Amino acid sequence: MKYCKYCGFPVPYGKFLEWTSDGTILGRDSARTRLVYLDVDELVNLFNGIQNWVGTDIAHIIYRAEKEVGKRFIETLLPSFFAKVPRGKFARPEFGVRVIGNYIFNYMAGLGMGRAEILEYESGNFARVKIKDGHSIPLIAGDGAGVFEYLERIGVETDWQRVRSEEYILTIKKVSDQPEAGVAIPLPSSEYVPGNVIFNKCKRCGVPLEVTSNIYLDFEKGILRHKLTGMRVVALPVQSFNAVMRELGKEFGEELQTFIEALERKYFRENYTRPASMGKAGLDAIYEEFCWRGVGNPASAINTSAGVEVTVLNPFHPEAIAGRVAGLYESWTETTVRSTWSKEKEGIIKVLMQKISR
Ligand SMILES: [Zn+2]
């Protein structure tokens, strides 16, 4: 892996990802995959919170939704690479899959998803993969199964077993000659509300210094950490987050999305660390991480007679952002607020907050 001599980030980062002026992070793959940097604890908190709320194990639903995303993802990530390998049937399947596997595993490590390694592979039938420091095992299992189904054109099932504290073995097995008709995945938005977010981009590799100064990537381990808080961070495809939440919503009812808002609000109220440099900076400074994290563009944060009003363009998930906006505000002001939000139009939400206590 080559690291940028100027900012120290792996060089492929700037080649794969683009931080746009509209508050999104887009991949340079054919689908322009949108990514968002979430805390791993935030994701775990969401999945655990939902699981406790519905009172049943949700890992398999996460896995199933992610499998379809994994297929799409690999389809858009690989074309240029695939030009060198015959599609469908490989001349030397084990070799081809190992090469593709390593390519994908490196990509995933760069996003902070841990380290994977193929232990065994039998074309058209079976694979065993070791996952170390994975951000979410059901998500990774879904990705792995999706890639396997895509490459082999068969239906598979996956089991995962913990072998050490941060180490799992995935076993992917053929169960049918055809991939099962998967869950429908919402199409990624291709149009975003324009903005004028400006980054201070590294002169050499193009990655914003806001990113490289805030997070540290241990590429060997596939671990990203926030430099200030020490929290682990992962870059997740937005489509993946939305597909999983949509499936969970279909299974357990649409009030789930409102519950996501409550979980995010609580998480950010309890876990927000104010940068020491921030001092008494203005209201919008609370939301300054939104852009480099790709969660959305906090276009304005103003005091109105009705309360504090925050407008976010291109929120990656409206409820999650509404909760995040309120939670950060509560943490910053050490108050509790009453908050409501509305979708102005596609890609624009307004969150209104009124203090109710001191
Ligand atoms: Zn650089």
Key phrases:
binds zinc ion; globular; 358 residues; alpha+beta; 4-stranded antiparallel sheet; 11 helices; 6-stranded antiparallel sheet
Report on the architecture of this protein.
The model has no long low-confidence stretch (mean pLDDT 88). This protein has 358 residues and is an alpha+beta fold. The N and C termini lie far apart (51 Å). The chain has a domain at 254-355. The strands form 3 sheets. A 6-stranded antiparallel sheet has the order 1-2-3-10-9-8. It has a 4-stranded antiparallel sheet with strand order 4-5-7-6, with helices on one face. Strands 11-12-14-13 form a 4-stranded antiparallel sheet, with helices on one face. A hairpin with a 2-residue loop joins strand 11 and strand 12. The chain has helices at 11-16, 40-54, 59-77, 79-82, 93-110, 137-152, 209-214, 238-252, 255-271, 289-293, 318-333, and strands at residues 17-19, 25-27, 34-39, 115-122, 126-132, 155-164, 167-176, 215-218, 223-226, 232-237, 297-304, 307-313, 337-345, 348-355. Helix 3 (59-77) packs across helix 6 (137-152) and helix 3 packs antiparallel against helix 8 (238-252). It is globular, with a radius of gyration of 21 Å. The chain has 11 helices and 14 strands. Zinc ion binds at residues 4, 6-7, 9, 202, 204-205, 207.
